[in-house]
Amino acid sequence: FSQIPMALHLDHGKTFEICQKAIEAGFTSVMVDGSKHPFEENIKLTRKVVEFAKGKDISV
Fold it and tell me: Based on the number of CB atoms within 10 Å of its own CB, is 31 exposed (0-12), middle (13-18) or buried (19 or more)?
C-alpha cells in the first residue's frame, strides 16, 4: 500500500448503482448528480446514496 495519503472521488454519479459501485470499490467520496431529475427525485436519490455511505467514512 502507498505511504502517500490520497483521495479517490467519483464526480457526477448519475445513478445510485454507479455511486454504490464506487463506494464498494474504495472511493473516498462521491458526488451525486441528480440534475436531470425533478427536485424531489434528486433529493430522494441523494438521500439513498447518503444512507448507503453512512458509517463507511465516505463523503457525499
Answer: middle
Tens-digit pLDDT profile for residues 6-54: 899 999 999 999 999 999 999 999 999 999 999 999 999 999 999 999 9
| 7: phi then psi, degrees, rounded to nearest 5 | -125, 150
Q: Quick check: is 57 catalytic?
A: no
- As beta bridge partners, residue 13 has 32
Q: Are 10 and 18 in contact (CB under 8 A)?
A: yes
Catalytic residue, from 3, 5, 11, 39: name it: 11
- Predicted TM-score of the model (pTM): 0.89
If 0-12 CB within 10 Å is exposed, 13-18 middle and 19+ buried, where does residue 14 land? middle
